[in-house]
Write a structure and sequence with these properties.
The protein has 198 residues and is an all-alpha fold. The protein has a domain of 127 residues: Four Helix Bundle (Hemerythrin (Met), subunit A) (Up-down Bundle). 70% of the residues lie in helices and 0% in strands. The protein is flat. The chain starts with 21 loop residues before the first helix and ends in a 6-residue tail after the last helix.
C-alpha cells in the first residue's frame, strides 16, 4: 500500500474551480434589485390599504323585506345567466339529433358553459336567498345540476367517441329538463308567500 504525502489532493479536470466572473455579480445584483422592488411594491400596497385611500368594493346585499330580497335574487342575480342558458338551447335543439353530427358538440359545450354560469350565480348569491324561497331554489339547483351533468356526459361521449355515452347524456338532459318548469313554478309560488315588510 502506497502512502500519500500530506497536502492537497490532486485536482481532476472536471473538478477545476471556476474563477468568479463579473456576470455572477450582475446576476446577484439584479436579483437583489428585483427583490427590493417586490418588497417596496408590497409595502406600498399595504400602506394604501391601511390608509383608507383604496376602496374595497363589495357587492351590496339587498336590504329590505324577504319579498324584495327574493325579487332581487331572481331578477337581478339569476335572470342574466338563465337568459344566457336559454339562448344556448336553440343551437342544441337544431344541431343535436340521433345522428350526433359534429356541430352538436360545439352547441353542447356552449350550453354547458351557460348552465354552469347559472350554478355559479346561485352559489355566489347564496347569502342573498331569503328562507321563504330557499328550499324551492335548492330543489331547482339540484335538478339543474343533474341536467348539466347530462350535458357534460354527452360532451364526454363525443370526446371519447362513445355514441352510447353521448346519447345517454342527452337523454338525462332531456329527462331532468322536464323537472325544471315545475321547479320554477315552485319558486314563484314560494316568492308569493315571502313577507313584504322588513
Amino acid at each position: 500500500m502506497a502512502i500519500q504525502p500530506p497536502g492537497d489532493p490532486p485536482i481532476q479536470p472536471w473538478n477545476t474551480p471556476v474563477p468568479a466572473s463579473t456576470a455572477r455579480g450582475t446576476i446577484y445584483f439584479a436579483g437583489f434589485v428585483a427583490l427590493a422592488l417586490v418588497v417596496a411594491a408590497g409595502l406600498g400596497i399595504y400602506a394604501l390599504k391601511t390608509s383608507g385611500r383604496v376602496p374595497v368594493l363589495q357587492a351590496p346585499s339587498p336590504q329590505g323585506s324577504a319579498y324584495t330580497r327574493a325579487d332581487h335574487f331572481l331578477n337581478v342575480d339569476l335572470a342574466p345567466s338563465l337568459a344566457e342558458a336559454n339562448n344556448a338551447l336553440p343551437p342544441v335543439t337544431r344541431d343535436c339529433n340521433a345522428d350526433l353530427r359534429p356541430p352538436c358538440k360545439a352547441s353542447l359545450i356552449a350550453l354547458d358553459k351557460a348552465m354552469l354560469d347559472v350554478n355559479d350565480a346561485i352559489a355566489s348569491n347564496q347569502r342573498d336567498i331569503p328562507p321563504c324561497i330557499g328550499p324551492a331554489v335548492q330543489r331547482f339547483r339540484d335538478d339543474w345540476t343533474a341536467m348539466e351533468q347530462g350535458v357534460a356526459q354527452a360532451i364526454g361521449g363525443y370526446t371519447s367517441g362513445s355514441r352510447a355515452l353521448a346519447l345517454q347524456g342527452l337523454q338525462r338532459f332531456t329527462e331532468m329538463g322536464k323537472l325544471v318548469k315545475p321547479d320554477v313554478d315552485r319558486i314563484f309560488a314560494a316568492e308569493a308567500t315571502c313577507s313584504k315588510t322588513a
